[in-house]
Queue: 2 jobs
Job 1
Amino acid sequence: MPSLLLLNIGTLVLAETHPCSFAAGKEMCHLPAVQNAYLLVENGRFSAFGPMEECPERADETIDAGGGFVFPSWCDSHTHIVFAASREQEFVGRIRGLSYEEIAQQGGGILNSARRLRETPEDELLESALGRIREIQLLGTGAVEVKSGYGLTVESELKMLRVIRRLKEKTAMPVKATFLGAHALPPEYRENRGGYIRLIIEEMLPQIADEGLADYIDAFCEKGFFTVAETEQLMEAGARYGLKAKVHVNQFNSLGAIPACVQKGALSVDHLEVVSDEDIQSLIGSNTMPTLLPSAPFFLNDPYQPARRLIDAGLPVALATDYNPGSTPSGKMQFVISLACIKCGMLPEEAIWAATLNGARAMELEQDYGSIAVGKVANFFITPPLPSIAYLPYAFGSDLVERAFLKGKMVMDKRING
Ligand code: NIG
Ligand code: FE
């Protein structure tokens, strides 16, 4: 593969000389960066960077960044981008006064998506999901996690996971697959919760493991969905197949799911709109990444995640979109970062760590993605010249990703194609 040299980079953001696995607490307010920098890519990986005075003589291809900033691509560690149809009627229902939980109780919400997904052929799901991958690629995302959870039958959960496997094959960015059979109780099991948990554990999981379809297991632990005890049972079952947990917790209530997930060695706990002091205590010293999804409360008009309390307690935080048809029909990480700053009190530097390296960590991809370091995969984007790093979350309505690269190859140039 030809080498690529980027010249005249205004600021090379998150350029690590000694790469770390994640950033936590106070570390998050300092972003390593090189001003007036060059960046060399060889064989699809970063091979050198530094100030322009130390720039190598030549490469096969040269790009003049013209003072634009270079960022490592966003690492979006929580999405549901395989789905059959949008749900804007529920959005209108909420404007008229219904809550997310009320819509779910009336058979809307996740069950609405499950009905539509069950009748949609695999190829059609793949086409629409690929469209969403292309969309997030244009928005600067360079690694993504995708969940099942709109199937809720053996056949349809497997169908979703097979779509995710095909996404992995067809996409230049890494894709992690999470099995979310416990997303909602399907109507057939309304009077038989135990039966559905058994279906997940005894039928879905063995087949998924057999075909190697999932990297992680998830559950929606919330009032009206799955209990802490059920979530624990599912995490244990997943662990028997080598699947670590990434769990939907504390979206509307703090039920004790966070300590339970930490105790089971979960890779991440996600949502966290409602967090108690005990929840925070349980996370300290653990390997579980608190993952905040602020565009969900934005869309649902809910309270935002208390990022400051988490970071001030010395914890790391990751940011992800939660892109899905019900609570967050958006895959735009730049907007998530703006919300994290404006609504959750995160500093721009903290939000950028959270949306890159810490997100990579929440998908176990931090060795190869999430920052600009020699040897890491060259997934990055170039912005126009910016007055400072803080301008990125500040300019919340501007799309600042101008040219996007995956494995060192340009996949989008907004200056040419839109
Ligand atoms: O993360 N909260 C649970 N699951 C998704 C929403 C799913 C849906 O409404 O379709 C979420 O917000
Ligand atoms: Fe989610």
Job 2
Amino acid sequence: MSQPRYFIKTYGCQMNERDSEIMAGQLDQMGYQPSLTDREADLIVINTCAVRGSAEEHAFGYIGQLRQLKDEKPNLTLAVAGCMAQEPGTIAWLTKHAPQVDLVFGTHNLHQLPELLEQAEASDEMVIDVWQSAGEVVEHLPSHRKDGVRAFVNIIYGCDKFCTYCIVPFTRGKERSREIDPIVAEVSALAQEGYQDITVLGQNVNSYGHDLTPAKDLADLLVELEKIDGVRWLRYTTSHPRDFSQKLIDVIGASQKITHHVHLPVQAGSNPILKRMNRKYTKESYLDLIARVKDRIPDASLTTDIIVGFPGETEQDFLETLDLVRQVRYDAAFTFIYSPREKTPAARWEGRDPVPNPVKKDRLNRLMELQYQISWEANQALIGKEELVLVEGISKKNDRVWACRTHSNKVVLIDREPAEDLIDRFVPVRITGAKTFYLSGQQVGKPVSPPAPRRRIELPIV
Ligand code: 5AD
Ligand code: SF4
């Protein structure tokens, strides 16, 4: 019999992407092979995201579409995983509207995928196994990495911050850090395989290590990871301004490897809104933090996340957000319209004091307009500068161009000689053009890194 094939559809953040890689690794070990499309798969896993209503709607839409495929191929197995599976509302919806689904499991038991699949195959009913809380951190799970150039490594799971709009503490549970040793071992193995650009991951990496004995912090971990030969760039995501310590700023400023890209989600610029979001900082203390970052890391590239239309947000509150954006001058911002989430305090306030939808949209547009202008100006200022970039692959839009990335996480497009393979190499370029979302450049010297071992990766995780 030919090997069964799997297809994983991933929604949401890097943590979900990483979870999908671990599911893919387990499936490889079970003898499955990846499929490039869902139509050819014998197993489809939908790894869902619950952070905003729009992400949920996409997943519901996709699950709905799969009904037809299941009718055509009754032996197809459909599994729903990820953050939405942790919500009781999703289970109720699936049972009522999506009987074609065979298996539902959550974020805390994805390491059980092989057993869960066996159960689902033996059962005529939908198998639902969602843990309400996390067990111990599980080490040594297999993994099938999606990206051939950059590698992502979990360091802390969960979040204890309980921002009042956010569902993550409910879907991902309490903060649990991995010990330093297995992280160092994983990154060393990746470096030996040739990965030079490593990102350590967590819902809130700045909390890393507080739950270990003896306690550790992110700066301690990064200092250990920097010592690993072969690692050229070290990144971390995502951060909370509240725990972004001076020690960490100093370590980043002094480091040759920890990239000078600092992502500090601010969410809002108004103090009353920040208070109701439970962010535990003020506009002033945030601006002070940014000033300390700029002082110690003068070439820092700053990015952020911002929510508009939080319940009760007034025009004055929103103007404070615009003012903060003008003061910080972020290189880029991820901007979102507030989306009420089940179980969160802000969802109750949304019932009493919502910002009308047209006002939410208008604020998002005004915020984006301001940020795009600032991003464009920041990129213009790079024209003429020399940058070292990592070549990630051929541009999706133009096969005569390499898509590369700077240490500050900006995309640079450079001309490509078809005969030369630069993938995974660090190349010096001069920036020759700048748009809002990307730069263009010209290669100005030979690659500074040797050819990396080829890790040609099929892309089954979409
Ligand atoms: N509505 C809108 N945006 C949200 N985010 C988190 N929860 C919500 C919500 N309920 C945004 C925050 C966070 C990013 C990952 O998603 O800005 O930093
Ligand atoms: Fe959500 Fe706040 Fe935790 Fe980030 S820090 S995951 S926004 S609760």
